[in-house]
């Protein structure tokens, strides 16, 4: 029953300055509109979402082929980069069309050939290049036909993305009935809730899963057909059905689940994307690490509903509890919409509250917001505090309607709305949140000017 298809992953590989981050920005640009409207993001330039037509995929800018020692590509090759290549579905290898090939390119090419991954060779900075003569040299890398592109100007980029994704999307389309979009929107509150439990290694994910699932009837579980399919664990609690989506190599050993693989950013990201609600587990003994904040950033970027669990609460004393709370307020302020639970997965304390909080977050994420109520809330908010003028323009807000779910998107229509400052958008977000009791989900407030 593993019907969760992870989004395909495209890894961008190449030495410094060939244009990886320029290409990354161009590929992920389509996504910016929604993301920019969710407040408090920590953007990470290394992972983003691109689209071919309506099909989303994940782009990873590996950025990591930096020499850290004088010799030896294996030293240079950051572990993360190797892992990203191994976990991707296709690699785009960038070289610099102006500088030509150097020894470093040859070394990377050799590793890529050895990896067995599908690789597309992109010759960047090719604007104005006289194709035949200049491109011929790149055949030498032994990675097939070179694709001339200009990441800076956009030439050839869409065709490159199409070619990279075409076989993966065809495979996906061939798989029975359900389109990715349907899969994403199908989580009505009375259907099963797709839940991902995310967190660094050792925070207690598998302990919690065993506590949760152990008390309930496990309907089905699946080992993956390929490494890129999700593992799903289905269970029921009362009249609710939940599907747990694996984040990082969960395996069933006898009667219990355990995490056997090392932490994978890509798998975590894919599982978060495939879920409706994410439970972010944090080890209270360790405080809030950069990696915790990173994962939290992914979750808000994808707009998923969120519950935070400060786990191992049994093992921290009062002083430490206060310290963790301060750390949380300082480093994860942008998660203020999420409910925070204090848990001991090991002792089963607070675990009962987990699914209640998950249900509530899910209900908020899929709330139906009627146009008249949204518009009334908008008018009351504007009356209480009108948007500031910008020069001669005074933004005029006419009405609001719902533009989507998970996260709820509220679209405000009016005039001169591009002059509305972000602080005012956040004010409105707070007003909608309060009026509709939307705790546990990010909320996107967007403006549409009609002139
Ligand atoms: P990265 O180190 O591989 O991520 O490379 P960057 O994306 O930072 O680009 C390195 C430099 O190459 C920057 O100065 C870019 O402006 C430039 N660059 C990137 N793409 C192109 C391109 O298509 N044409 C030209 N002429 N310059 C480019
Ligand atoms: P995972 O890597 O996130 O799946 O973490 P595990 O579930 O394997 O847990 C890592 C370690 O933390 C194990 O030794 C667990 O027994 C321990 N652990 C998990 N939850 C708790 C808890 O609530 N309290 C304490 N004291 N230890 C815990």
UniProtKB/TrEMBL annotation:
Domain named EngA-type G: residues: 8-172, 193-366
Signal peptide: none
InterPro entries, alphabetized: G_ENGA, GTP-bd, GTPase_Der, KH_dom-like, KH_dom-like_a/b, P-loop_NTPase, Small_GTP-bd
Keywords annotated in UniProt: GTP-binding, Nucleotide-binding, Repeat, Ribosome biogenesis
Binding positions (GTP 1): 14-21, 61-65, 124-127
Residue sites binding GTP 2 per the record: 199-206, 246-250, 311-314
PANTHER family with a match to the protein in the record: GTPASE DER (PTHR43834:SF6)
Function (record text): GTPase that plays an essential role in the late steps of ribosome biogenesis.
Family: Belongs to the TRAFAC class TrmE-Era-EngA-EngB-Septin-like GTPase superfamily. EngA (Der) GTPase family.
Subunit record text: Associates with the 50S ribosomal subunit.
The protein's name: GTPase Der
Annotated source species: Castellaniella daejeonensis
Gene encoding the protein: der
């Amino acid at each position: 029953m593993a019907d969760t298809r992870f989004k395909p992953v495209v890894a961008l590989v190449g030495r410094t300055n060939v244009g990886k981050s320029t290409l990354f920005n161009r590929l992920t640009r389509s996504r910016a509109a929604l993301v920019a409207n969710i407040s408090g993001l920590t953007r990470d330039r290394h992972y983003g979402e691109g689209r071919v037509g309506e099909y989303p995929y994940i782009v990873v800018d590996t950025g990591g082929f930096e020499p850290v020692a004088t010799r030896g590509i294996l030293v240079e090759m950051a572990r993360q980069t190797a892992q990203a290549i191994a976990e991707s579905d296709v690699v785009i290898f960038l070289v610099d069309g102006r500088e030509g090939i150097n020894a470093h390119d040859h070394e990377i090419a050799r590793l890529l050939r050895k990896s067995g991954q599908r690789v597309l060779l992109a010759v960047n900075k090719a604007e104005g290049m006289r194709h035949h003569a200049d491109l011929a040299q790149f055949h030498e890398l032994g990675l097939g036909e070179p694709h001339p592109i200009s990441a800076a100007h956009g030439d050839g980029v869409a065709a490159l993305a199409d070619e990279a994704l075409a076989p993966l999307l065809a495979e996906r389309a061939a798989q029975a009935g359900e389109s990715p979009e349907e899969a994403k929107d199908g989580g009505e509150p009375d259907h099963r809730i797709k839940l991902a439990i995310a967190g660094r290694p050792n925070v207690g994910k598998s302990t919690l899963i065993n506590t949760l699932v152990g008390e309930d009837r496990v309907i089905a579980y699946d080992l993956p057909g390929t490494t890129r399919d999700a593992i799903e664990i289905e269970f029921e609690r009362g009249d609710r059905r939940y599907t747990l989506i694996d984040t990082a190599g969960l395996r069933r050993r006898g009667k219990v689940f355990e995490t056997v693989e090392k932490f994978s950013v890509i798998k975590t990201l894919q599982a978060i994307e495939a879920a409706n609600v994410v439970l972010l587990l944090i080890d209270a003994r360790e405080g809030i690490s950069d990696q915790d904040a990173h994962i939290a950033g992914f979750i808000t970027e994808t707009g998923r509903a969120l519950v935070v669990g400060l786990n191992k609460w049994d093992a921290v004393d009062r002083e430490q509890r206060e310290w963790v709370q301060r750390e949380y307020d300082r480093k994860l302020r942008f998660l203020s919409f999420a409910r925070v639970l204090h848990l001991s997965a090991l002792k089963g304390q607070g675990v009962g509250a987990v699914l209640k909080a998950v249900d509530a977050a899910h209900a908020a994420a899929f709330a139906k917001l009627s146009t008249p109520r949204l518009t009334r809330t908008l008018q009351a908010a504007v009356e209480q505090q009108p948007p500031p003028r910008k020069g001669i323009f005074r933004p005029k807000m006419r009405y609001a309607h719902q533009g989507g779910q998970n996260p709820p998107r509220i679209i405000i229509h009016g005039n001169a709305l591009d002059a509305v400052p972000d602080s005012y958008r956040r004010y409105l977000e707070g007003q909608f949140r309060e009026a509709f009791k939307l705790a546990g989900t990010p909320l996107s407030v967007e403006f549409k000017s009609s002139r």
